[in-house]
């Protein structure tokens, strides 16, 4: 099942806008020649099968240019990572980093994360889900595009193993507050902060974080654990 969303991830307004025509020829070549080595097969019904070894599975949603994902995968070699991103140039950049660093514990799904989570991720199969600096969609009429929504968080909680972690970060204070309200509505998740957490050692500074800091924004980390 790949195209249809399960009821716990109802089809919704998308959290991204595709901007075609921005791929350089080097990026296109990286996608054509190198992505197949890392791409998750769209017919897989369990993301864990994308790896040739069992290991705790961490999913990063919206990895952007992939810098943080490559950094994390290099520092947590005992874990498997799946990065989900729709922005093709970013995927091209990550593929090059994985090749250059010889990282074998990362797979890539170049698709809408909502589709991947609803179709390829069984219940209680993920150790962690990391969502760093998702598009804040600041205008009120665009709030429905924010990826952090009640159904999205419920769906993630369902797919986390008991004890599994959902880690969110943003530099947009109103979105941080929104995230808290949404996540507090999910009974299975327990906030490990008050409500904010210190940046955990596993998260590097990201590209969009640096951009936010350059604009004088405060950074908010939220760490939730699935109770049972
Ligand atoms: C603001 S950027 C943050 C990138 C990176 N995490 C960082 O901190 O630098 C948000 C990213 O999420 C991606 N994105 C948004 N909605 C998505 C979805 N439904 N599925 C996959 N990627 C998505 C966008 O393409 C974009 O690259």
UniProtKB/TrEMBL annotation:
Pathway: tRNA modification; N(7)-methylguanine-tRNA biosynthesis. GO terms for molecular function: tRNA (guanine(46)-N7)-methyltransferase activity. The keyword tRNA processing applies. Substrate binds at residues 139, 171, 206-209. Keywords: Methyltransferase, S-adenosyl-L-methionine, Transferase, tRNA processing. S-adenosyl-L-methionine binds at residues 60, 85, 112, 135. InterPro entries: SAM-dependent_MTases_sf, tRNA_(Gua-N-7)_MeTrfase_Trmb, tRNA_methyltr_TrmB_bact. It comes from the Bacteria. It catalyses: guanosine(46) in tRNA + S-adenosyl-L-methionine = N(7)-methylguanosine(46) in tRNA + S-adenosyl-L-homocysteine. PANTHER family: 3-DEOXY-D-MANNO-OCTULOSONIC-ACID TRANSFERASE/TRNA GUANINE-N 7 - -METHYLTRANSFERASE (PTHR23417), PENTACOTRIPEPTIDE-REPEAT REGION OF PRORP DOMAIN-CONTAINING PROTEIN (PTHR23417:SF14). This is tRNA (guanine-N(7)-)-methyltransferase. It comes from Wenzhouxiangella limi.
């Amino acid at each position: 099942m790949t195209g249809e969303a399960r009821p716990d991830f109802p089809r919704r307004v998308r959290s991204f806008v595709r901007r075609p025509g921005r791929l350089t020829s080097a990026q296109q070549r990286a996608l054509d020649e190198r992505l197949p080595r890392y791409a998750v097969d769209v017919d897989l019904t369990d993301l864990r099968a994308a790896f040739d070894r069992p290991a705790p599975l961490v999913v990063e949603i919206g990895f952007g240019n992939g810098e943080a994902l490559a950094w994390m995968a290099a520092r947590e070699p005992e874990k498997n990572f799946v990065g989900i991103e729709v922005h093709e140039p970013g995927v091209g950049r990550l593929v090059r980093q994985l090749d250059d660093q010889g990282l074998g514990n990362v797979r890539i799904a170049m698709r809408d994360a909502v589709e991947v989570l609803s179709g390829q991720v069984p219940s209680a199969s993920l150790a962690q889900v990391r969502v760093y600096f998702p598009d804040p969609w600041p205008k009120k009429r665009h709030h429905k595009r924010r990826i952090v929504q009640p159904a999205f968080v419920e769906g993630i909680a369902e797919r986390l193993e008991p004890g599994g972690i959902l880690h969110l970060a943003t530099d947009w204070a109103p979105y941080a507050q929104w995230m808290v309200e949404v996540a507090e509505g999910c009974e299975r998740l327990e906030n490990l902060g008050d409500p904010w957490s210190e940046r955990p050692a596993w998260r590097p500074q990201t590209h969009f974080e640096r951009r936010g800091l350059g604009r004088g924004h405060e950074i908010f980390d939220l760490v939730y654990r699935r109770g049972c």
